[in-house]
Automatic annotation (TrEMBL):
<dbReference type="GO" id="GO:0046872">
    <property type="term" value="F:metal ion binding"/>
</dbReference>
<dbReference type="InterPro" id="IPR011566">
    <property type="entry name" value="Ubq_synth_Coq7"/>
</dbReference>
<dbReference type="InterPro" id="IPR009078">
    <property type="entry name" value="Ferritin-like_SF"/>
</dbReference>
<keyword id="KW-0560">Oxidoreductase</keyword>
<comment type="pathway">
    <text>Cofactor biosynthesis; ubiquinone biosynthesis.</text>
</comment>
<keyword id="KW-0408">Iron</keyword>
<keyword id="KW-0472">Membrane</keyword>
<protein>
    <recommendedName>
        <fullName>Ubiquinone biosynthesis protein COQ7</fullName>
    </recommendedName>
</protein>
<dbReference type="GO" id="GO:0006744">
    <property type="term" value="P:ubiquinone biosynthetic process"/>
</dbReference>
<keyword id="KW-0503">Monooxygenase</keyword>
<keyword id="KW-0831">Ubiquinone biosynthesis</keyword>
<keyword id="KW-0479">Metal-binding</keyword>
<dbReference type="Pfam" id="PF03232">
    <property type="entry name" value="COQ7"/>
</dbReference>
<dbReference type="GO" id="GO:0008682">
    <property type="term" value="F:3-demethoxyubiquinol 3-hydroxylase activity"/>
</dbReference>
Length: 196
């Protein structure tokens, strides 16, 4: 059986049963703290993205996909909430939630090819983003528990990208263009989240 095949009811998750790392934040380099803040924002946006789908479409497959993947993203968010106290989080969380809802709601409203293209594109980019964070953490703060969380979240994001790409492997060029825009905005958002 292909372990990466889409499963709208319960996608596999590397974070099931994973405990948050017990980190001494005062001992972490500022660059790692900024990355943790960016990851917290990213997971906040991801949960909101899937929240935005509910009011934007009545397509049962899209709704099932969003609900099942939201559960995994919510697990990621809880891990980062356990690591990062409120005073260390972004000051723009309301904006990030709104932007996530738009990032999920607009493509879902446009139709399944748009939604799946955006999810596939953004999640593939997030996979690479986590890879860069893991490399940085190995160099600057090689805590095994932190690395386990980052690696588990990365694997989940990779699975989400593959799930979406397999559900619509040949989206129209307009959907691919919207996905590229969403990836560009994700890059900008991560840069901002590191500092604000």
């Amino acid at each position: 059986m292909d372990t990466l095949s889409p499963s709208p009811e319960a996608p596999p998750s590397a974070t099931i049963g994973l405990a948050p790392p017990q980190l001494d934040l005062s001992a972490l380099p500022p660059r790692i703290l900024r990355e943790l803040r960016a990851s917290h924002v990213g997971e906040t946006v991801a949960v909101a993205l899937y929240d935005g789908v509910a009011g934007a479409t009545s397509d049962p497959e899209v709704l099932r996909f969003a609900a099942s993947h939201r559960r995994v993203e919510r697990r990621h968010l809880r891990l980062f909430e356990a690591v990062l106290p409120p005073e260390k989080r972004s000051a723009l969380l309301a904006f990030w939630r709104w932007s996530g809802r738009v990032m999920g709601g607009l493509p879902a409203w446009l139709g399944p090819p748009y939604f799946y293209a955006v999810v596939a594109g953004v999640e593939a980019w997030v996979d690479g983003h986590y890879a860069r964070q893991i490399a940085l953490a190995r160099r600057l703060a090689p805590d095994p528990d932190l690395l386990n969380v980052l690696e588990a979240c990365r694997l989940d994001e990779r699975l989400h990208a593959r799930d979406a790409a397999r559900l619509d492997p040949a989206p129209p060029w307009t959907a691919r263009a919207l996905a590229r825009l969403a990836v560009f905005l994700s890059r900008v958002g991560v840069r901002a989240a590191r500092w604000v």
